[in-house]
Write a structure and sequence with these properties.
Number of strands: 0
Radius of gyration: 20 Å
Shape: elongated
Order of helices and strands: HHHHHH
Helix content: over 70%
Structural class: mainly alpha
Distance between the termini: 42 Å
Strand content: under 5%
Number of helices: 6
Length: 169
């Protein structure tokens, strides 16, 4: 009897029709653009947050960078939900991306907690930065999930089939 876990991992990430929809939709390009932009903003923002925590300087710059990172996160979540709807027929929690979406909601919750604390002034600057570090740690895990999923999708495609006889290579 075969192991269900090994059967699941050997199943391709996309069906042929899902792959065709993924490749045809503009939302794939949007996600492909937003993801590295968000990561770049994250890296700069992390540096600014750490600078503030280590020196006490640069609170305003750190705050602006966190707000930009949060705006990008919300944008990529909305456009990602649209992408999932186009490719998989549901806005979120498609089986192929279930755990990525679960972790994404944790990331969003932490970023939203930051916004709430900032807007209501219910968290001190130090507490805001600590919430940000938690949000960024969760975001890093989520980004790693998506990179592993991207790698899996590329491995699923395998090497290109040789051209049919009489077709140019």
């Amino acid at each position: 009897m075969s192991d269900p876990a090994s059967q699941k991992s050997s199943r391709p990430l996309y069906t042929p029709s899902q792959r065709a929809r993924r490749d045809a939709t503009v939302w794939t390009t949007v996600q492909g653009f937003l993801a590295p932009v968000q990561f770049l903003v994250f890296a700069v923002s992390l540096g600014l947050v750490l600078r503030y925590l280590l020196t006490g300087d640069g609170y305003a710059a750190a705050t602006v960078s966190i707000l930009l990172k949060t705006a990008l996160l919300y944008t990529i979540m909305v456009t990602g939900a649209i992408w999932e709807k186009v490719v998989f027929g549901q806005y979120l929690f498609a089986p192929a991306f279930f755990w990525e979406d679960v972790v994404s909601f944790g990331v969003i919750a932490l970023h939203t907690l930051y916004l709430y604390g900032l807007l209501t002034e219910s968290l001190s600057p130090l507490q805001l930065m600590l919430v940000t570090l938690a949000a960024y740690a969760a975001y890093f895990v989520n980004a790693a999930q998506f990179l592993l999923k991207l790698r899996r999708a590329r491995l699923d495609t395998g090497p290109a089939a040789p051209p049919a006889e009489g077709q140019p290579a």
